[in-house]
Every structure is written in C-alpha cells, then in structure tokens.
Amino acid sequence: MTDSPTQIQTADDRDDRLLCGLVYVLYLLGPANGVTVLVGALIAFLRKDKASPWLAGHYEFQIRTLIYMVALVVIAIICAITIILLPIALLIWLLLGLWLLVRVVVGLVRLVDGRPHPDPKTFLV
Question: In whole angstroms, how far apart are CA 13 and each of 1, 18, 55, 69, 99?
Fold first, then answer.
C-alpha cells in the first residue's frame, strides 16, 4: 500500500511542472499588472533548489527573465524621463513586450514537451 520512490518522485515532478507552468502564465499576465511577474518570480526562486535538474533550469530561466526585464524597464524609464529619448523608450517598451512573449511561449512549449531549457542564462530564447 505504500508508494514506491519513483511514484513519489513522479508526483513531485508533476507538481513542480504544474508550478513552473503557472509561473509562465503569471509572466504572460505581467504586462497587465506587474504584481503577477513578482509572484511568479517568487515561486520560481523558492522552488528552484527543490526541483529536479531539468525543472530547475526552467526556474532559472524564469528568474533571469525577471532580472533582464527589470533592467530593460529601468532603461526605458530613464529614456522616457529625458523627453528627447521618448521614441527610444517607446521602442524599448514594444521590444520588451515582444521579447517577453517569445521567451515565455518558448519556455512553456519546452516545459509541456518535458524538455529542459538548453541555456537558462541566455538573454535571448
């Protein structure tokens, strides 16, 4: 009647996989309100050490996404404050949205397929 260790690990992987998918969905909702991105990053940060190696790569990818996103937002805000660079700020916002969408969709597809992220520390996909 007891579960074997492989069944327990499978259940844990399933739960971590679901949480990892939830983080990707929270990141997709991020442009509507920034709070969901912070909640998703908090989940990723807390679960990264406890997850299996292939899921830890996804969590690392999500944490890096937040770090890069914050850096780009700061650059866009600085450009927007100086009125002369406002067109550059708008371009950064547009590219940031596209970058976030592509990054999250690619990560989510890899997660659903059960594949690890090849290089979670990369800026691009």
Answer: 21, 8, 8, 28, 28
